[in-house]
Amino acid sequence: MDDRDVLAQINRLAGEEHALFDVEARGEVTVEVRQRLRRLEIMLDQHWDLLRQRRALRAAGRDPDRARVRNETTVQGYRD
User: Fold this and answer.
1) How many folded domains does the chain comprise?
2) How far apart (Å, rounded) are the C-alpha atoms in residues 64 and 58?
3) Which residues are CB-contacts of 72 (< 8 A; sequence separation ≥ 6)?
4) Residue 80 DSSP symbol
5) Strand, coil or helix: what is 4?
6) CA distance 80 to 78
7) How far apart (Å, rounded) are the C-alpha atoms in residues 14 and 55?
8) Has this prediction a pTM greater than 0.85?
9) Measuring CA to CA, which residue among 6, 37, 43 is closest to residue 19?
10) pLDDT tens sequence across 15-73
11) Separation of alpha carbons 57 and 6, rounded Å
12) What pLDDT was estimated at residue 80?
């Protein structure tokens, strides 16, 4: 997966998230919608982290393909 692929995935996930925010704004929230929003938040954090890793590795003269998706606990810990 290269940077363009990661960004495309981020855009796809963000689009779905925004659509669900619209559902939420209309008061049509279900447990499933809330769960999906939470999962999207985590996946977006993971993809942004992956993109940052790739860029940092490239800037350090290393192979950006060594970057890996980190687990939920790790990326969610960045918010604290």
Assistant:
1) 1
2) 5
3) 42, 46
4) -
5) helix
6) 6
7) 20
8) yes
9) 37
10) 999 999 999 889 888 999 999 999 999 999 999 999 999 999 999 999 999 999 999 99
11) 15
12) 59
Under 8 Å CB-to-CB from 10, ≥6 apart: which residues?
A: 44, 47, 48, 51
Angle at 25 between CA 27 and CA 79, to 5 degrees: 115
Residue 40: what are its φ and ψ, rounded to 5°? -65, -40
pLDDT band, residue 76 (cuts 50/70/90): confident
Report the C-alpha gap between 70 and 50 in whole angstroms: 8
18's CB contacts (< 8 A; 6+ apart) are none
User: Which amino acid, one-letter code, is at 9?
Assistant: Q
- Report helix, strand and coil shares of the chain as percent, to nearest 5: 75, 0, 25
Tokens 């980190």 belong to: 70
Q: Which domain holds residue 66?
A: 3-77
